[in-house]
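anyone seen this seq b4? input:
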Amino acid sequence: MKDRVRFGKYIRVALTVGDFIVVNLAYFLICFIVPDTNPLDSKWAWLIANLAFIPSSAFFSGIHNDRIIYADRVVINALQSSVLYSGTFLALLYIFDLYHVGATASLSLGVVLFILLSLWWIISRKLLKRFRRMGFNFKRVIIIGTGPTGRLVARELASDAGYGYRLMGLFDDDINARAQIQGEFTASLDEVENFVRLNNIDIIYYTVSGENEETIRRMMLVADEAGAEFVYVPKYHPILQGQFQLSSVGMMPAMTHILSPLHTFPNKMVKRTLDLAMAIPFCLLSPIIFVPIAIAIKISSPGPVFFRQKRTGIYGRDFVCYKFRTMRVNDQADTLQATANDPRKTKLGDFLRRTSIDELPQFFNVLIGNMSVVGPRPHMISHTEEYSTLIDRYMVRHAVKPGITGWAQVNGFRGATKQLWQMEKRVEHDVWYIRNWNIFLDLKIIFLTLFNSFRGEKNAY
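predicted toks r here
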């Protein structure tokens, strides 16, 4: 085992210096793009450009401390940091009477900073994880409790060596629970104090019930005296999935379940802005696409151009969903799903379905506001009634607006659901999307949808 060298504080300083280098790189890029008339090209503007990043650096300092964080969250933090930076920069310009710079330059600087900061934070974290896999900058940890929660914490810490956690042991007075731990050092709680002192433990994860007052007080004292970080992990149960927000009941800490980030007003506005940014231009230009398709549909078979069907929307409310008609007029349209060799389909309709062109009229649903570009696909009323009694959490998928495309679709769960497990997997992906939404996930799904449309999908029929 390699001797530990405490690189942590030096790494944080180096990463923070790197942040300011990125700020200056963004600044000089803006100056280089418009060298003659650029209002930023002055020493005072340069000084303010650096001072403006101090609040962002302080407020988002946790980005260099969190060891377990995913790329989409890193990008979101970079966006928030850049927005704060642009606002601070603009405010300082007016405080110091540099009115000639203006909002346009400030926003341009913020956009470039967002791009560079996202790249820097993602790349630096990749390099840091590789550094930790080499055995440096790790944290020595122990876990109090060998029950299900303790084992889950151990599994999470060991899931990626790049996180930089070295599990030194698990402690519990329950001999039977300790016997279930394989490949790790285990001991009783009486041995914790000496073990922490002799092994220079950095973090103690406490996973035993908090109602055992004497034990938790003793373990906190051990951590305080050894200078170790004490982390209390509440008892975990599989049903307690999703996001929780720290709240309180009087003086007592509590956790409030947040079903979806989309239930907050700022996120609703961000998603609606993306929807309108795509729906408005498309609807304005739609006649160019719709007119030839409408003529072809009319030639292919008698009936209307558009297929209108009631489907289940947000909060279980019905709405009329629009599609190009791909089948001959029939009496089973509202009850029977399309199949691969469905005789009801026209040749043109088969092409429209395989390329997902039949879904394009739903941009008008997005414009109206009863659909989103990305979200769980809306199901027929008959399917909602059927599967809501068969699949657990099925109705959760209606907690947000349905979408033209969704996380389930880009993961291959589209088309007919001949077996129950297929619908279960679709619901599983829909619920995951609802719980883990962010704007960059939407952009990823839109990109994958376009990619799959050009490539073709075997389940699109």
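Residues 187 and 455 are 56 Å apart (CA to CA). Residues 1-5 have pLDDT under 50 and may be disordered. kinda curious what u guys think
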